[in-house]
Amino acid sequence: MTTLRIGTRASTLAIAQSTLVKDRLARATGLDVELVTVTSEGDTNRASLASLGGTGVFASALREALLADECDLLVHSLKDLPTAKHPGLTLGAIPARADARDALCARDGLTLDQLPEGARVGTGSPRRVAQLRSRRGDLEIVDIRGNIDSRLGRVGDDLDAVLLSAAGLDRIGRLAEATELLGLGFWPSAPGQGALALEVREGDSGPDLTRGLSKLDHRETRLIVTAEREVLAGLEAGCAAPIGATAVVDAGLLLLSATVYAPDGTARLTASHGVTLEPGSLAAQLAEVHDVASRVVDELLAGGAADLVPKGSIS
Ligand SMILES: NCc1[nH]cc(CCC(=O)O)c1CC(=O)O
To answer: Of 164, 282, 294, 312, which sits 20 to 30 A from 151 (CA to CA)?
Structure first.
């Protein structure tokens, strides 16, 4: 009987996400599904992500393993995945998105507004830094790295709070430590945040895996995360750029809103557009998504988005 092998990093979050997909795939196909651990430079190098050479450090070792047939699929956090398609690979399924919001995890149940003046807040994300500076210029922002557990471990120790993805916290069973979920309207999160992407070799999936992928794929999620990621691609920005984007589908209308921040939080630019999704093929709907994302990108560029974001953060 066929066994499907999921290549995964060894971090708590990666194992949690891969196990989630393993269980769903096993249920959907009746096949055996197992995890294969792959180590990457992003796991062993403690240097800042930016200095590791831009986006996708976690993805590259995994992708080599997939291309070498050491596994059959990868489970990525979509927000960590570069927008450019990787040669020979394709996103075979994008399951229904979880909570896209950022979560504040603060000591003593504090919210962002309740943090005392000068409180120390940890994050390694330029978007979160810009958003924090823009709302609370008094805070001391501490650049932190490492996995979710080690970040949470510093709250109440050397930090007053950290910012993390609600979906990531939930997947490792620690969402209860969130003291505030930041609304997407005033605090847009990263393009694709909260969504997983299942990557496979192109044209090489076989009937069992193909069936499993189609059962896990969620079209609405694919449309909204594609819209958000097209903003990144259109601005030629990487996952480290200070850009928030939120797309939703409501009553057949896809709404996309994106905000570009000056890294120091002193300026920001928002553009929003919508499109009525016509019933039809995925390809036709993706074309509509592309149009709406282009309108958002054009408006941001016309407003001077390229000047807000310094070239260095565009990778
Ligand atoms: N860049 C790190 C990263 N990549 C994906 C997640 C969590 C899962 C997700 O948001 O999809 C996280 C942690 C975080 O941002 O707190």
So the answer is: 312
78 within 8 A of 197, measured Cβ to Cβ: yes
Known catalytic residues are: 79-80, 127-128, 145, 151, 239
Same domain flag for 13 and 24 = yes
Whose CA is closest to atom 15 on ligand 1? Answer: 165
Please check whether residue 94 is in contact with residue 196, taking contact to mean a CB–CB distance below 8 angstroms. Answer: yes
The crossing angle, in degrees rounded to 10, of helices 206-216 and 12-29 is 110
Model confidence pLDDT, tens digit, residues 14-65 = 999 999 999 999 999 999 999 999 986 655 555 544 444 444 566 789 999 9
Ligand 1 atom with minimal separation from the 125 CA:
1
230 and 308 together in one domain: yes
CATH of residue 247: 3.30.160.40
Q: What is the pLDDT of residues 104-153, one digit of tens each?
A: 999 999 999 999 999 999 999 999 999 999 999 999 999 999 899 999 99
Whether 190 is in a domain gets the answer no
Are residues 90 and 4 part of one domain? yes
| CA 123 to ligand 1 centroid distance, Å | 12
**187 in a structural domain:** no
pTM (2 d.p.)? 0.92
Q: Which of 237, 234, 239, 258 is nearest to 310 (CA)?
A: 237
